[in-house]
Design goal:
There is one protein chain. The protein has 237 residues and is of the alpha+beta class. The chain folds into 2 domains: 3-82, Phosphorylase Kinase, domain 1 (2-Layer Sandwich), CATH 3.30.200.20; 85-220, ATP-grasp fold, B domain (D-amino Acid Aminotransferase, Chain A, domain 1, 2-Layer Sandwich), CATH 3.30.470.20. The chain has 6 helices and 13 strands. It has helices at residues 46-63, 99-105, 134-139, 145-168, 212-215, 221-232, and strands at residues 3-9, 13-18, 23-28, 31-34, 39-42, 70-73, 78-82, 85-96, 112-122, 131-132, 171-183, 186-189, 198-202. Strands 8, 9, 10, 11, 12 and 13 form a 6-stranded antiparallel sheet that branches. A 5-stranded antiparallel sheet has the order 1-2-3-7-6. The two termini are 23 Å apart. The structure holds cytidine-5'-monophosphate (C5P). Residues 90, 92, 99-101, 129, 175-177, 197-199, 211 line the site of cytidine-5'-monophosphate (C5P). InterPro entries: SAICAR_synt/ADE2_N (IPR028923), SAICAR_synt_PurC (IPR033934), SAICAR_synth (IPR001636), SAICAR_synthetase (IPR050089), SAICAR_synthetase_CS (IPR018236).
Amino acid sequence: MEKRQELYAGKAKSVFATDDPDLLILNFRDDTSAFDGERMESLERKGMVNNRFNAFIMEKLQLAGIPTHFERRLSDTESLVKKLEMIPVECVVRNVAAGGLVKRLGVEEGRELTPPTFELFLKNDALHDPMINESLADTFGWATPAQLAEMKSLTFKVNAVLKQLFAEGGLLLVDYKLEFGLFNGEIVLGDEFSPDGCRLWDADTREKFDKDRFRQGLGGVIEAYEEVGRRIGIGAD
Ligand code: C5P
């Protein structure tokens, strides 16, 4: 398998073609962005830490029967993935109120959400990823009702697996964002799962171990990501 040209550079990852039309290489960079790219910083080791984190989580999800694009980790900062036709809709599940939900609805941060909520956002930086719903996704052709139903079902399956995994490390999975795509017509989990796209709090102290440390200027961002890795058993190899 040969690495070919760069196809796309996102805010934290770059995507490369390979000599196999069905496979891509994701390169996890040290770049860290917040507020739709308004704030950018390079954090040492982040690419490596997130690549390992994502590989570990994707393998767990695959073992639990959730189809993912992940094939294998190639190096410290690169992974091989299936090429998906991405669906431009972000799926967010919240177990505990934080972030956008608190801002939007004025509910108390830290309130347990029973049942957990499910929200859809359009992936569009220029519009700041506006909240959408199934009707809008259907009308504008972003995803069909059947695809959305499958995305919702898979997003909640991920919740069951990961809530348990993080709880074993003394961490609360507060919320997270997933992105899906199509591979041979099947809905498959794409993008990444790392502390960049979820909120993780210490179950007892509620200390933050995720990207909110960067957004809120708390420092110790990568150290916190590494601590999560240790707690859930990610080895250094
Ligand atoms: O900002 P908000 O509270 O809506 O985010 C919910 C969850 O989704 C958080 O864990 C956040 O990190 C993640 N998210 C993301 N990328 C976005 C929007 C939200 O990873 N574009």
